[in-house]
Amino acid sequence: MRPDLFEAPDYYNLDELLSDEHKLVRDASREWVKRSVSPIIEEYAQKAEFPTQIINGLAEIGAFGPYIPIEYGGAGLDQISYGLIMQEIERGDSGVRSTASVQSSLVMYPIWKYGTEEQRQKYLPKLASGEWMGCFGLTEPDHGSNPAGMVTNFKDKGDHYLLNGAKMWISNAPFAQVAIVWAKNEEGRIHGLIVERGMEGFSTPETHNKWSLRASATGELIFDNVKVPKENLLPNKSGLGAPLGCLDSARYGIAWGAIGAAMDCYDTALRYSKERMQFGKPIGQFQLQQKKLAEMITEITKAQLLTWRLGVLRNEGKATSAQISMAKRNNVDMAINIARKARQILGGMGITGEYSIMRHSMNLESVITYEGTHDIHLLITGLDITGLNAFK
Ligand code: TGC
Ligand code: FAD
Question: What is the spatial distance between Cα 249 and Cα 321, in angstroms, rounded to a whole number?
């Protein structure tokens, strides 16, 4: 892969909307990605392996629990700083951002929000430092968009719970020490349980042959009569709203992350268009290529504004789940379209690992599917504006 020459587009001077702390956090993440992710990520994506050597660096830039209070090892930052970190990491690779999203919003967040003080003290500092990695098990083989139908269940056996079932498509599963698992109790109520690697009957086979998110490890979670200590139940919230509350935080991070992937594709294509000569001219001088580039920067700028505003609403505690859905859906769709157009600007070179675009393009096929598909987020907006449920 070529040297990382990334320069971030900021067509509407959005930097003026950021505080000094936001810019400091963003620039530190950007430099770290240039130094530690860009030089190795293509190789790891090609061999379909998560680069575990970057875990410490992710922890150091505050990517594990950016908004979790400092007393629990988090970075204690606001929602815009959190978003900017996700943007910069996904500028490098969506799979790396996935690992950080899962750790922060899907593992640390539920322990922080729904857990006991003992659980917070036991798990959060180790997760923030990357000493322990976590995963989040909601999706099942027969229940993806409809997690309410899950069949994974636990029974009260007096001094422990007995957990049975299976989860599928779980990011970080193959190496995680801790899994937040959503399962139904005997009354059919959904609860979160903290399951640890090493518990008898718990296994995490890796999912192979992915063409997307290759630098992220994905796997199954299988529970065969796993005895889970009673103190591992997250007591402070139950029902489907509990996992969906975690998804709000992760989907918000993805909305920012997708901008990062789009910015990288745009910046690469813009530079290439000024250097690549055909018919005696740089291809950037042809109207058809300018149309693609002009539309890209327009869409990126719209997404930046939407997402910054969402960050302000999140900081004020006013953002709704439906607003988050709109941003996740819009930005990932924007990024996937930009990746496709950028790939065309690079011609044949665009399909190679010399450039990041094809990898972003393939990664975004997962991002547009996970954390609620493109269709599901449209239906969430539809329900919000009409009051009519088109899911079922
Ligand atoms: P519904 O009846 O609408 O809601 C059930 C309860 O949940 C509440 N709720 C929410 N709470 C917090 N945040 C949200 N976003 C919420 N949406 C709904 C709701 O108020 C209700 O509460 P209560 O107290 O009345 O019970 O539920 P439904 O069964 O009709 O489903 C609605 C639907 C389809 C929108 C939902 O199931 C959904 O979002 N499906 C998509 C599933 C999904 O996103 N899965 C993601 C799995 S994790 C993942 O992909 C990680 S990838 C990580 C990475 O690598 O980055
Ligand atoms: P389905 O739900 O079967 O959907 C198939 C198609 O039907 C989609 O186009 C969908 O939009 C459409 N559809 C479904 N219902 C409706 C409806 N009511 N109306 C209209 N259209 C509908 N899950 C986790 O729990 N944890 C993880 O860490 C995790 N990581 C993932 C990593 C990767 C790489 C991938 C690919 C997935 C991951 N997922 C994870 C799972 C992800 O959240 C699901 O794939 C996603 O929610 C969709 O579920 P599904 O794949 O079963 O598709």
Answer: 9
- From first to last of its 392 residues, what are the pLDDT tens digits of the chain? 789 999 999 999 999 999 999 999 999 999 999 999 999 999 999 999 999 999 999 999 999 999 999 999 999 999 999 999 999 999 999 999 999 999 999 999 999 999 999 999 999 999 999 999 999 999 999 999 999 999 999 999 999 999 999 999 999 999 999 999 999 999 999 999 999 999 999 999 999 999 999 999 999 999 999 999 999 999 999 999 999 999 999 999 999 999 999 999 999 999 999 999 999 999 999 999 999 999 999 999 999 999 999 999 999 999 999 999 999 999 999 999 999 999 999 999 999 999 999 999 999 999 999 999 999 999 999 999 999 999 99
Q: How far apart are CA 316 and CA 338, in angstroms?
A: 31
Residue the block writes with tokens 């709203």: 241
Q: 175 vs 55, 102, 163, CA distance in Å? A: 12, 13, 20
Q: Judge whether 135 and 173 are in contact, CB under 8 Å.
A: yes
Ligand 1 centroid–CA 191 distance in Å is 14
* 225 vs 114: CA distance, rounded Å: 25
Label residue 38 exposed, middle or buried (CB < 10 Å: 0-12, 13-18, 19+).
buried
Q: Judge whether 85 and 260 are in contact, CB under 8 Å.
A: no
65 within ligand 1 shell (Cβ under 6 A) = no
**Does 371 participate in catalysis according to the annotation?**
yes
> Which pTM value belongs to this model?
0.98
How far apart are alpha carbons 74 and 386 in whole angstroms? Answer: 39
* Residue type at 9 in one-letter notation: P
Per the CB < 8 A criterion, the answer to whether 350 and 343 are in contact is: yes
Q: Containing H/E element for 328?
A: helix 321-345
Burial grade of 227 (CB within 10 A; 0-12, 13-18, 19 or more):
middle
- Residue 288, exposed/middle/buried by CB under 10 A (0-12, 13-18, 19+)? exposed
Closest atom of ligand 1 relative to the 171 alpha carbon: 55
> Which tokens belong to 201?
């009957």
Cα 137 to ligand 1 centre (Å): 14
**How far is ligand 1, taken at its centre, from the CA of residue 244, in Å?**
4
